[in-house]
Amino acid sequence: MLLRQEAPVSKAKGEKPRRDKDMTDCIALVEGQRDEENRVVLVSQAVHMNEDLYVPKSLLKRRSNFVLHTDLYDGHFYFFSHWVLDLLQEKKYIASIKADLIPHLVRRQFRGKEALPESVRSKATSKQELAASLSLSEEKHDPEDLVRCFAYVLPSNAYCERADTIPAYRAMDEEVGSRLRIKRSGSVSN
């Protein structure tokens, strides 16, 4: 996941917040452990949460040192291992990467190899064993830690936005142009 930390904005009276509640994500990231840095251990949309937050006991036993963020903006930019495509073919009910696939993968972490269907498990295991055998890393490879989800939090000076409509894309284009201070000319010359 590609995330950007949003600066706290003090809004004027009557001003609409930058994001609606249905666009706010609650993301728990493991912090402070070198090999686990920014591992995503919990994902939930704020609109689905009432006043109580459910955290599974199994998660607390395995990773008790995490920070819950509501100020991270999801750029909808993801990298997946190839076996995730096989998982999508098996799990026909997964219709959305953001709403279905990411929470599914995050929930399957820390459950060992049995968390995945056999056909997907064999492909994922063979690739990870090959990668571990070729790795020069001092980190130990845990074959039970098959499903792992990480996030990259952009530095504060990085630009990250998403556009799902043409007007939003145009507004984003204008914002990028104004940030870079590029002069637009009416004609193109060679």
TrEMBL record:
Family, similarity comment: Belongs to the eIF-2B gamma/epsilon subunits family.
Keyword tags: Cytoplasm, Initiation factor, Protein biosynthesis
Region (Disordered): 1-20
Organism lineage: Eukaryota, Sar, Stramenopiles, Oomycota, Peronosporomycetes
GO MF term (any one): guanyl-nucleotide exchange factor activity
Organism, as annotated: Phytophthora nicotianae
Main location: cytoplasm
Name of this protein: Translation initiation factor eIF-2B subunit gamma
InterPro entries: eIF2B_gamma
Subunit structure: Component of the translation initiation factor 2B (eIF2B) complex which is a heterodecamer of two sets of five different subunits: alpha, beta, gamma, delta and epsilon. Subunits alpha, beta and delta comprise a regulatory subcomplex and subunits epsilon and gamma comprise a catalytic subcomplex. Within the complex, the hexameric regulatory complex resides at the center, with the two heterodimeric catalytic subcomplexes bound on opposite sides.
